[in-house]
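Example with several molecule types.
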Amino acid sequence: MDANTFGKLFRLTTCGESHGPALAGIVDGCLPGVPLNEEIIQAELDRRKPGQGGPAATARREEDKVRLISGVFEGVTTGTPIGFVIENTDQRSGDYSQIKDVFRPGHGDMTYQAKYGVRDYRGGGRASGRETACRVAGGAVAAAMLAPRGVTVCAQTVELGGIKAESHDPEGALGRPYFAADPGVVDAWDKRVRALKAEGETLGGVVEVIARGVPAGLGEPVFDKLDARLAYALMGVGAVKGVEIGSGFFASRLLGSENNDEILCPGPKGFASNNAGGVLAGISSGQDLVIRAAVKPIASIAKPQRAITAGGEPATITVGGRHDICAIPRIVPVLRAMVLLTLADFWLLAGRR
Amino acid sequence: MDANTFGKLFRLTTCGESHGPALAGIVDGCLPGVPLNEEIIQAELDRRKPGQGGPAATARREEDKVRLISGVFEGVTTGTPIGFVIENTDQRSGDYSQIKDVFRPGHGDMTYQAKYGVRDYRGGGRASGRETACRVAGGAVAAAMLAPRGVTVCAQTVELGGIKAESHDPEGALGRPYFAADPGVVDAWDKRVRALKAEGETLGGVVEVIARGVPAGLGEPVFDKLDARLAYALMGVGAVKGVEIGSGFFASRLLGSENNDEILCPGPKGFASNNAGGVLAGISSGQDLVIRAAVKPIASIAKPQRAITAGGEPATITVGGRHDICAIPRIVPVLRAMVLLTLADFWLLAGRR
Amino acid sequence: MDANTFGKLFRLTTCGESHGPALAGIVDGCLPGVPLNEEIIQAELDRRKPGQGGPAATARREEDKVRLISGVFEGVTTGTPIGFVIENTDQRSGDYSQIKDVFRPGHGDMTYQAKYGVRDYRGGGRASGRETACRVAGGAVAAAMLAPRGVTVCAQTVELGGIKAESHDPEGALGRPYFAADPGVVDAWDKRVRALKAEGETLGGVVEVIARGVPAGLGEPVFDKLDARLAYALMGVGAVKGVEIGSGFFASRLLGSENNDEILCPGPKGFASNNAGGVLAGISSGQDLVIRAAVKPIASIAKPQRAITAGGEPATITVGGRHDICAIPRIVPVLRAMVLLTLADFWLLAGRR
Amino acid sequence: MDANTFGKLFRLTTCGESHGPALAGIVDGCLPGVPLNEEIIQAELDRRKPGQGGPAATARREEDKVRLISGVFEGVTTGTPIGFVIENTDQRSGDYSQIKDVFRPGHGDMTYQAKYGVRDYRGGGRASGRETACRVAGGAVAAAMLAPRGVTVCAQTVELGGIKAESHDPEGALGRPYFAADPGVVDAWDKRVRALKAEGETLGGVVEVIARGVPAGLGEPVFDKLDARLAYALMGVGAVKGVEIGSGFFASRLLGSENNDEILCPGPKGFASNNAGGVLAGISSGQDLVIRAAVKPIASIAKPQRAITAGGEPATITVGGRHDICAIPRIVPVLRAMVLLTLADFWLLAGRR
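Resulting structure tokens for the full complex:
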């Protein structure tokens, strides 16, 4: 719960800029005896790779090769901090000279300057989505710890460019373009993406993350509610502008009798519905956790926009180039990782081993 | 950022159950020299009092009288922790004997039992909305510190029972029933509330909180983004099921060129729009912060619902009595307090004095 | 680990000035189901009362009556925060008007002024030893949690005014004047105390705290070592100027073969000696924890001293009145409480229940 | 203030085992605009290198080459986390096969096993003094931030093997063997070290760290006192068994009139003495901070000792080889680094920029 550290007992600390020498992360607090190696982490990182998402993806090639440097011995975690490094192999600083002097709309150029008075403008520096590689790597460690304990997390895109998936199949989403909830919607999304790309536009969507096997009793009652921490986790990912749990914003229009989940018998399957999204009074009920994040359109558009220079002069900027036109699908494994990291932390906070 | 502590440098720690002897809170980290007394805090607490909200309010009478016990000397804060106590004067435990044995739908009875194995069932114990009195008191201290520094926060109800306010006037909301954004909508809300009350139903709505005068540069770039912490703050209030900032969920349907806020000239007024809601890359831009929270309908309804007993037997429960039928308007000063507490913390984290 | 909060999972937050309305504390994180009531806490507080220590004690009468306001239901803790209030019944502000304008040697008057620019000078305000009442109350909660789990902590005075106890009997210390380690030394200490009191002098000593039943495996390997946190805990008590564990400073003069504790057989009794003081590489070994704190003489002496006024002018001050002449014995239950609080925290950090 | 993270606002997180692929650290919270590069950090690391200390040093050759991977742009810090990696180039695991099965006296083998159930036994793994390289690198960043702000820290060995330095010259210590406080004592120390080395023995000593230019007003009044945090910082370094500030343990034998530092005129030079060691009531007074750490003899001795195997059987172990026979002088820059890290944190906590 710090600037660059996530979690209280299961803690991920990261560093690295888009065009610096390397990214790195340290996972502290992982239980000992968890089978882990570079391949396990690499498999998750590869899901975040460009090219997973059809036409929405950037042409830029990033080789995110993770190297484990500590905390694993003879194939299992030792309880000491797990360090990893991801080299930046594709540093073409020349591409970004334009943004040195102009504050791009929708980007953090201006706010970084306000906060720090200095910034590494190359590729967005620390504000680049590149930092999310470390989140995914950290989430892979959390997944490795939680899976043998019965907790799994999946994620699916349920809406893109205003077009909703009609059916949900989160377990199958991993194998589909856009990590789509519904195979039937992919063509429509492809068409929309291609059309907007031609216009120099970008678009957004909604991603749903579902955690299964979460035992009842995780979370804290007042400030550190499980849903509060999940909201923190997802809203802290760049491009996310809204987070909801269970029936979410729709709950504000339901009657009490419609929104309450009646209880028919004990156990996670005993509820008549899951409008709560798996959390009651900030504590997990044993039902699936269901969280959705609203993803804004990518701010870098290939159209002229009004902006100002660092000196305060009006300017027009067109941020062309090799950018994604939608944070989806690459953000999907990132959001999943954030839920995994949150659950790993609450697992330990509950004294579970 | 703990179970019962909110914030890192400006920290509110609270305790107290609905029907225990008293509530108390400790605000640690408030700057010295801030004018403060019991009246200032009491004025905020009074806004949370039943009866502020017309027909939606409970008939139950709570006298929330705050007593300051430390941290203030000769009318100003000293920099040492500010302690306050609010006695529980209306403890009628007899009213709640029914819920001792049955887990109410939509309440934390079951999850508290799963987490702790024991619970103070009287009036919901710690899970009762009563704990929010301490949030409001803490927020009053934050407001006292921030106001002379130019930061003010207001809140308004923008939707109730599915009926939206047509115009927004946040500064005037304080004086209206439901803290309504729009005086013209109050009659329709009254009518809806009365009708549902007669049916034994409850309802929800949407509250918007706006912070003005927040300087550019507050927040952290990666995990501890300002918007992430605001989401944490609001989602941690009971009954909130969704949080969004700026254009929020709507942003997921906009094009990049629609959602980006073009920059016309330097300064907080220099943006062409505020879809970002005042935050870029996790850091305040100087524009107004605009955050909305989705409030679910109150779970206690005067209709029979299926539930189970602590022993796992099916049961039917009707939670009648003296309950509010909507968390609005009482939740409005609570949400405002959470934004104030968050901003006070980031103020200090930025090294401001 | 904050200004006024101690611990990470078992957290004590306190407030209150010497001459303000009241002190209060909130213990967050205590396990549920621990038998607790006001009598249990009061019994510990009474050990800190003036008059426990023979001639070293102040004549001032403090009635530290603790009132529990939350977190306990039907005689056991519920897992929610445990709040307590101790009223200040003996507020005679008039006694302290002199120190309003003069910075006393050895006191925090000057440093508080430098830090805050304002201070509650009455009786030392927050810097008064009076705040330690909350530590003792918090420690009583920790003791209530740990005792049924086999962990007990005792404390004894091993040196006073330069006169060492010749034998150690920590379990019996509770019943002796000065909480003396050795009944045979009490007369010599009495004599020394009386003689110095007559001269207007004050004196210090050394206190040893011993924890028994601490299981092997508590603590963290690098920064958050168990001994590091114990040092933090004890050095954070006013008047403590040094902390050592096991053979402590004496270890710096031993050879490796002398200082190493050979291991003869498994288990806490299997070591040939305990120079380590129960901690190896920052983690408990199962042996008794043995920690000593050096307590400086009370700074308030009944002799004229050179000082300066708040305005920077030279002054002479004689701090007479109703002061203790030694922090021992009143500091002894405080130091014991700090070790208890530390161990309760590491108990939870280790995932123990 | 976590297992592998030090500090609250200026935070160092580290990872790495003695014989793993590499060590790494992340410094989060450093102010922007601080001139920094690899050379500055390397210069500090080189002081920790074997061979700085004459005959006490190991023959083992470690090349601690630091590589900066983030947080620095165009020669200055950017405010984003500063990552560094130090490769382990000298991994000879074969040397350590003996300690796989035997718990060495005075080492963490047994306690790591108790805590984690698994351990990287090669060279002590995480418990090796090798982790302190990251502390020194982190301390170098703190020094780079603090020096232009007027705060400097030096360290000197004041006692070795029971032989005290007769005079103190901390500023010159850096250039002397053992970082000796007194050039005149070096020969005696050399002689003692040689004699004990021949016997297969090891020895300890006392190190003093002095911080100059610390402004009045750093620290917190109750739990998070500046001296408490310094004690935490130093006691958390392996081999340290005691910490004292100012007159320290000696204060326990002084009279109040002897120990109080009279105040003659305003300002850091206005005190008649510095028994307080620069801290009053937990807050810096502006005087020099003076802290001493007791360093135990190295536990690895070249003599047979009784021990047990992991299976609980009695064993005899002789830990020969290429070990240092004293943690001094290599621990000296480590202790200095810990004070620097602590002060950088309190600098930020005080809102200073």
